[in-house]
Amino acid sequence: MDSTLIEIRTGGREAVVDLTDEIAAFLRSAGAGDGLLNVWVPHATAGLAVIETGAGSDTDLLSALRDLLPADDRWTHRHGSPGHGRDHVLPAIVAPSMSVPVLDGSTALGTWQSVCLVDTNGDNPVRSVRLSYLPG
């Protein structure tokens, strides 16, 4: 198994960050063939999604999350910025891990699919993402 931890800078704002290029570079460096890629976010306030980016879907996702999880004072968990409790609910909706099939060294994603970090927590401008390749 090959594994690496990458650092993603979200800039202290809500963000959907495409990880596809970092994943492809990791799989090349791991000499990947067929297998499985596990992606893990070791944070209590971030998750991962497979989504189209660049055509507005990433912005739509953040908008939908704002509607579903408003940044207001309804949350019991209250440290950090106003509405921060919603950030701690996010991983129950946008999971902190995923597995992606790898075929001949590349992810088996569809044409418009990208693996993305989803981060609504402006209090943490730097995130870590663990990539692990398991040969098949």
From TrEMBL:
Signal sequence, renumbered to the chain: none
Superkingdom of this protein's organism: Bacteria
Cited Gene3D superfamilies: YjbQ-like (2.60.120.460)
InterPro entries: UPF0047_YjbQ-like (IPR001602), YjbQ-like_sf (IPR035917)
One Pfam family recorded for the sequence: YjbQ
Family: Belongs to the UPF0047 family.
Name used for this protein in its record: Secondary thiamine-phosphate synthase enzyme
